[in-house]
Write a structure and sequence with these properties.
- The structure is a single chain.
- By secondary structure, this protein is α/β, with parallel strands linked by helices.
- The protein has helices at residues 2-20, 33-36, 63-75, 86-94, 151-163, 173-181, 192-200, 229-244, 247-254; strands spanning 38-43, 46-47, 51-54, 59-61, 78-83, 100-101, 115-117, 122-130, 143-147, 166-170, 187-191, 207-208, 214-219, 222-224.
- The strands form four sheets. Strands 8, 9, 10, 11, 12 and 13 form a six-stranded mixed β-sheet that branches.
- Helix 3 (63-75) packs across helix 8 and helix 3 runs antiparallel to helix 9 (247-254).
- The longest helix is centred in the N-terminal third of the chain and has 19 residues, at 2-20.
- The two termini are 35 Å apart.
- The protein binds glutamine (GLN).
- Residues 44, 47, 86, 103-106, 147, 150-151, 191 line the site of glutamine.
């Protein structure tokens, strides 16, 4: 990160030196500054099929990765992707360390106090998941796994008294699934499509306890509230373009939607 900043600063200094010395073409009226900016985008790192490491190529792939790429291509945006996890991504955007994030992030009313969101590109809600045969009655007196800072965690909090369980928080979806498989927690809460994908692909031997998604919300790209309006505008324009030309549909279909 520091290296990137140093590089950006160095490039900016050279650019302004060129403008000052009149070396820039047409006097560097706008200096082409905006089109040269490389945006720093953060994402989750284990949230298939939205973002996950392809162990063959050692690259992050998935719906969000492809949407960002397609939008950037359409809008001529340069960006650098950092797959650090969901809570770290939110922190990076709030700290101004990242310009934006795309991470299967639900457009939740409360988040609008600190984030500005794009138009939605997907919709999903929360389900309880456990080992085969687990019922909601089995949660009583036990612990349930949830992911830090997520809608799933919030949903678990809202029904924990009703079902009599307590919550253990995990940083990553994969840690959460492992905890259920290992028997540390009796169940976890996850976005329906994400756990559906993990179950279908045979990655985790779990099943949904509830099958009707709760707290259904749109997924959106996000920037810090009041910042990076230009990036958000470009994202929305690019998203509209890939909705209109069928590219978004194609990306979703590639991952089974
Ligand atoms: N959609 C959920 C949320 O926004 C989970 C996102 C994630 O874990 N990447 O809270």
């Amino acid at each position: 990160m520091k290296k990137v900043l140093a590089l950006v600063l160095a490039v900016a200094m050279i650019a302004s030196a060129l403008v000052l010395t009149g070396c820039g073409k047409d006097g560097g009226k706008d200096g082409g500054k905006d089109s040269e900016k490389t945006y720093i985008i953060y994402s989750d790192n284990a949230f298939a099929p939205f973002e996950y490491l392809d162990t063959d190529t050692n690259e992050y792939v998935g719906v969000d990765m492809e949407i960002m790429k397609a939008v950037a291509e359409d809008q001529g945006i340069k960006y650098e992707m950092h797959n650090e996890g969901f809570d770290p991504a939110m922190g990076a955007v709030q700290a101004g360390q990242a310009d934006g994030m795309i991470a299967g992030m639900s457009i939740k009313e409360e988040r609008k106090k600190t984030f500005d969101f794009s138009e939605p590109y997907f919709e999903d809600g929360q389900v309880f998941v456990g080992k085969k045969g687990t019922t909601m009655e089995d949660l009583k007196g036990k612990t349930v796994a949830a992911k830090t800072s997520t809608v799933g965690g919030e949903y678990a909090e809202s029904v924990k008294d009703q079902y009599g369980f307590t919550i253990n928080y995990y940083e990553g979806s994969d840690n959460m699934y492992q905890a259920v498989l290992a028997g540390t927690d009796v169940a976890c809460v996850e976005d329906f499509s994400v756990i559906g994908y993990a179950i279908k692909s045979g990655k985790v031997d779990l099943e949904m306890i509830t099958t009707e998604p709760a707290n259904v919300l749109g997924y959106g790209f996000a920037v810090k509230k009041g910042e990076n309006a230009e990036l958000l505008e470009k994202f929305n324009a690019g998203l509209k373009a890939i909705k209109d030309n069928g590219k978004l549909k194609e990306i979703l279909a590639k991952y089974g939607y």
